[in-house]
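Thread: Newbie trying to understand structure tokens

Hi all, I'm a second-year student working on a class project, and my supervisor (Dr. K.) asked me to get a predicted structure for one chain before our next meeting. I've only ever worked with sequences, so writing a 3D structure as a token string is new to me. If someone could post the tokens and maybe explain what I'm looking at, I'd be very grateful. Here's the chain:
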Amino acid sequence: MVWPVPLERTTSYAAGTAGGPQAILDASRQVETYDEELESEPCRQGIHTLPEMDTRHGQLEELLGSLRRAAADLLDDGKFFLALGGEHSLTPPLVAACAAKFPGLSVLQIDAHADLRDQYEGSPNSHACAMRRVLDVCPAVQVGIRNISAEEAEALPRLATRVFWARSLHGRPAAEWVPQVLSALTDTVYLTVDIDGLDPALVPATGTPEPGGLGWYDTLALLRALFERKRVVAADLVELMPRPGQHASDFLCARLAYKIISYRVSLGGWKLKTEC
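---
Reply by user tm_fold:
Sure, no problem. This is what the structure looks like when written as tokens:
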């Protein structure tokens, strides 16, 4: 199930993530439904797109509560959802709903930024605090990180997370490091992908494009192994900031969204029993 959530309340460098979900949906119309890697058309299993959630009204804390309740309803109905953001602050309430439903949950984050501040610009619910709030709920593994503040670095040894720095992955075959990532996760996983985790040569349309990110095929190798070996119960894809006339980033996000759904449908022992 695809769930557009155009949340944008705490962006701090550039604005535009609210347009991300619609840009991904628009680009998805150009994505071939046949997956050459899986040699199938996973969409034939069924993909439903929900109406875009209204995120423009109300206080942020109230909205995050609404997100958690809506996610819990989807999970209670047996659905796997892929939330399309929007800024990264949408992730903690979705993780909280999953953790309440699935004991022993852990989170895999693909991101350029650690997002481990306890508060930022006066808000504990800022996009810069997303993973700190996740760690209030369950442990995490963070992949592709290459930007961290002094405050976050100081707190890191005390936090229930393991970081795989981008610099330590660069130039190494995915087969060397992907098993290490998976071994750090529990059996049941929530996946959050901040699109700036990939290199800005691939995705320039994001708020803070950091050099030195993951490549396309390394990202797919990690995701494929994740879905083969773990029970992935929900996911999000956030922080696309579409730019008029530059649709390469939109299309990559649409392709990545379809790959996430395709892996969830097609791989391993956790194939869907209900509509995606």
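A couple of things are worth pointing out once you decode it. Confidence is low (pLDDT under 50) at residues 271-276. The first strand starts at residue 2 and ends at 5. Feel free to ask follow-ups in this thread.
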